[in-house]
Amino acid sequence: MKCRAHGYSTLAFAAEWGNLPFRCFHAETGIAMHDVASNPGLFARLGEVRTDWTVEQVRTLFALPFADLIYHAQHIHRQNFDPNRVQVSTLLSIKTGGCPEDCGYCSQSIRYNTTVEREELMELERVLESARIAKANGATRFCMGAAYRSPKPKQLAAIKHMIAGVREMGMETCVTLGMLTPDQAVELKDAGLDYYNHNLDTSKDFYGKVITTRTYQDRLDTLEAVRNAGINVCCGGILGMGESSQDRAQLLHTLATLPAHPESVPINQLMQVPGTPLFGTEKLDALEFIRAIAVARILMPKSHVRLSAGRSGMSDETQALCFLAGANSIFYGDKLLTTENPDEHHDLGLFKRLGIQPEAQRDAVDTAHARSVHAEAAPIRSTMALS
Asked: Most Cβ neighbours (<10 Å): which of 76, 171, 283, 303?
């Protein structure tokens, strides 16, 4: 039977019908509403920036009635952000395909038969032209992705020049290049990098079902190197890969209990690519995805929560609920690395219907530093084509 108050399944714990107490349970997590009500300390601290969350507390948040969860997430969102502003980023694949990793979702792995063709590292001027177009279309952050396990010295040198050139335009810079050593992270920081993206993908327990060529600890070590270098961390995960609700709770728990919350938290919905092992995975229910957005907002109040890959498969109504749940960042443009994304005109139309405005361009950037690094790059600026 269903609880009329919460829409949860009910279970009776009594020998006789006459004194039957009903308890409400979330269908996915199995957490009882009694457990939610008996945890007043959790709700007293909502809105606080903290890294001492427990997995059970995260599961309790997931188990809230949908309206209550959205209420708490929206309240916290308004305490920290303008609810009608969304940060806009553009993502460009600067080196495509040929990756030796075996990530089960990825079209760029050499292990899978997909339609993605290998392309060498882009020349600098092509990257900068793409950045100019992105800025003209309203993006405030330009993200560059390269399909590497980890970058080699020559590759890193070329990418540093790209970072400097983009930053010189007054845009925030972000790269995702695979694993980094502490020294490489320092190099990128010195080049002016603002953000480094390195996702955990999923929970530690489910991780081995998705990828075997890189460990969970490898990912955590890269995040530590990035943070120690003074670079903002962009780190999230992918939902809908066949993981359980417990895995989603554990992923968000791991993110929220890092030494510091990631400044940017991309929440992706699996983009199913023919030829990859995860193609054909049962699609995640939209309301479960929205719940994850809301819980991420509650756990990490001051982080930008990005509605990332998978938007092309979402209805406008689902995206609107994600914004209501606390998402305040998107990738803008018709392609994310190698997969499709809603085009700019569709996003602008949706923003208009929802009364949302893109966040303004950065008011200031350390262009003097960017110019100095960029000038040093001149001898090898535009001729590099590195694998």
From this structure: 303
Of residues 106, 214, 219, 227, which has the active-site annotation? 106
Active-site annotation holds for 99: yes
The whole-number mean pLDDT for each consecutive block of 10 residues of the chain, a chain of 387 residues, reads: 42 34 47 54 89 96 96 97 92 83 78 76 93 87 89 93 94 93 96 95 95 94 97 96 96 97 95 85 94 98 92 92 96 55 74 90 40 38 33
pLDDT in tens, 148-202: 888 999 999 999 999 999 999 999 999 999 999 999 999 999 999 999 999 999 9
Asked about 235 being catalytic, the answer comes back as no
73 touches 327 (CB < 8 A): no
Cβ count near 353 (within 10 Å): 10
Specify whether the CB–CB gap between 311 and 330 falls below 8 A: yes
Say if CB 306 and CB 267 are below 8 A apart.
Answer: yes
Question: Cα–Cα distance between 188 and 371 in angstroms, integer?
Answer: 15
Among candidate residues 141, 219, 227, 234, the one labeled active-site is 234
For the stretch 62-91, pLDDT in tens is 999 999 999 999 999 999 999 999 998 888
Please pick, among 24, 59, 103, 291, the residue that the annotation labels catalytic: 103
Record the tokens describing residue 245, joined without a space.
């609700």
Identify residue 309 by its one-letter amino acid code. A
Q: Cα(333)–Cα(5) distance, rounded to whole angstroms?
A: 42
Residues 161, 191: Cα–Cα separation, whole Å: 8
